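Input (structure):
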């Protein structure tokens, strides 16, 4: 019974510590919600495009486009053109 109480106390202490840690992290981010909003924006799904030459998928910001707006994974494939 003594150990059960001890376990309970340790569990509560650990839970309280993790909550306190999360709170201090949020306060460091500046205005409440600002950091969270930026994080949500960052975690927004990036549009994935398939290279029209080899078919490899890559995030839109990393894609290269030809004059027709077709996505390519690399300059070499852009020069090679679509298959
Ligand atoms: Zn490619």
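Output (sequence):
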């Amino acid at each position: 019974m003594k150990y059960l109480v001890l376990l309970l106390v340790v569990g509560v202490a650990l839970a309280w510590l993790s909550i306190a840690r999360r709170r201090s992290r949020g306060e460091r981010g500046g205005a409440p919600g600002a950091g969270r909003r930026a994080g949500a924006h960052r975690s927004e799904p990036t549009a994935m495009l398939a290279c029209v030459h080899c078919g490899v998928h890559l995030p839109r910001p990393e894609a290269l486009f030809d004059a027709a707006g077709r996505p390519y994974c690399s300059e070499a494939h852009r020069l090679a053109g679509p298959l």
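Notes: Strands lie at 48-50, 57-59, 64-65, 71-72. The chain has two domains: 1-44, 45-83.
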